[in-house]
Amino acid sequence: MSTPKVGADIESICGRCGDVWHVVVAMVGSEGAKVVCKQCGRQHRYRPPGGAARSPRRKRSGHSRAKSQPASAEPLVPVDSSRPLRRYQIAESYAVGDRITHRTFGDGVVELEVGPQKIQVFFPGGRRVLAHERSDLADS
């Protein structure tokens, strides 16, 4: 098997959609280190099909990146379509049951408060934890 080059097609397992067709975007030595999934567009490390990754995952120091929780078929609270759909803004305050629209995640419903100034929102693509009531982070 020849060594893949940046821009070449390669088989790799996508953790998001499960597809195997990818394009190499970065190399480390002769190994494909980063790939982009042709199905969903996600960029991730190379994962060979049918086996473990070529190199073990390194531990990250500091904060971990936020990930969405797996999407379930239904939100934890009933969606009340009589409530107005509000544009998400970090400085605004939201309550359980509020309907919001987010420029990246789309339309969702606030399911619960998960901590001070944090809410869990159900979106069709997955649950996300968002900040609210944070005027100190709002765009001026």
Which descriptors would you attach to this protein?
140 residues, mainly beta, 36% strand
Describe this entry's structure for a reader:
The strands form two sheets. A five-stranded mixed sheet has the order 5-6-7-8-9, with no helix packed on it. The chain has a four-stranded antiparallel sheet with strand order 1-2-3-4, with no helix packed on it. It starts with 8 loop residues before the first strand and ends in a 9-residue tail after the last strand. Among the domains are: 37 residues, no CATH class; 53 residues. About 4% of the residues have low confidence. It is elongated. The chain contains no helices and nine strands.
Outline the fold blueprint.
Elements: E1 9-11, E2 21-28, E3 31-37, E4 43-45, E5 85-87, E6 99-102, E7 106-115, E8 118-123, E9 126-131
Parallel strand pairs: 5-6
Antiparallel strand pairs: 1-2, 2-3, 3-4, 6-7, 7-8, 8-9
Summarize the structure.
The protein has 140 residues and is mostly beta strands. The chain has strands at residues 9-11, 21-28, 31-37, 43-45, 85-87, 99-102, 106-115, 118-123, 126-131. Mean pLDDT is 78; it is low at 53-57.
